[in-house]
Amino acid sequence: MSGLKKQDRSLSGEPSEQPAAPPALSPAMQRWLHQLSHEKRYSEHTLSAYRTDLRHLLAQHPGIDPDTLNQTQLRQAAARLHAQGMAPRSLARILAAWRGYYQSRTKELGWPLNPAASLKAPKIGRPLPKALSVDQTQQLLDRPSAPIQDDPVSWRNQAMFELFYSSGLRLSELVSLDTHYHQDSQYQSKSWLLMDDRELLVSGKGGKVRRLPIGEKALNALQQWLTKRTALASLAISADASAALFLGARGARIHPRVVQQELENYARASGLPVHVHPHSLRHSFASHLLQSAQDLRAVQELLGHTNISTTQIYTRLDFQHLAQAYDQAHPRAQRKNRASDKPDE
């Protein structure tokens, strides 16, 4: 019966429930993406995003050769996307892809001006990173209400999260760590543990390499995990898995999504009333270090930020901490909305 209804609806001229196919990229767009892939070694994730970004442009001007669009038409396309509810951050990425494409066409065709050069997205607000307080971090890692079980997965999780907070790692950096430096015909390490030096050697964004210290708590957790790691390492079937510091339940290098899920469960078992994402531990590392040391350059180096402006956002977190202390301690702060302060009605 349902099949007949669908057939009758299609025969009667009613619209189909299937979404329209995305616009096909022009040959020039396809060549540009091919160049980014093979000459500049862009990741497939980035290339997929660029394809979507270019299709947004084609959808705004259907049936028109994108190479014939002028500056005004491109601005109109961007304005329509914004009016349709496109978030400023997403729109900024889309316009960056458009500028890149038209810059390549400007060079190839000898245009006097890149028509997308002046395209700008609405200003993006920079939200404060979500950092845990020192007490919340200690509650998460010390686990007074849920002691660590003596099994490989429990010790792996404790070592991962201690190391996150101890060294301010990105999630991608944590999962890329090896037990030590490995090199053979099948595999070569990019980031690895230096237990004797109590350090990590990490290859971060843009291939930037940095050495990071390991705190005492993280070091102890790592030593415990390494004694348990062999139980999962025996399941490894690749050179990459054999080298990996942190392994999944089936012996492969642990996946970032597994780390996220385990941390969510870990925070819940610890009784924390807030959602904890892996990057929360990196933010907490930076915020707590800055509160104690007041050395922005040192925090920049430890985080692996290329620009100091990226690190400076943590000074806003530090100011929040100071402002809260002021509100609580200064006898004449008068910044609290207390019922006793309200006039009688």
UniProtKB/TrEMBL annotation:
Residues 1-25 are annotated as: Disordered. It comes from Alcaligenes pakistanensis. GO terms for molecular function: DNA binding; tyrosine-based site-specific recombinase activity. PANTHER family: PHAGE INTEGRASE-RELATED, TYROSINE RECOMBINASE XERC. The gene is xerC. GO terms for biological process: cell division; chromosome segregation; DNA transposition. Residues 1-11 have a biased composition (Basic and acidic residues). Residues 23-106 form the Core-binding (CB) domain. Belongs to the 'phage' integrase family. XerC subfamily. This is Tyrosine recombinase XerC. Site-specific tyrosine recombinase, which acts by catalyzing the cutting and rejoining of the recombining DNA molecules. The XerC-XerD complex is essential to convert dimers of the bacterial chromosome into monomers to permit their segregation at cell division. It also contributes to the segregational stability of plasmids. Forms a cyclic heterotetrameric complex composed of two molecules of XerC and two molecules of XerD. One of its GO terms (cellular component) is cytoplasm. The keyword RNA-binding does not apply. It is found in: Cytoplasm.
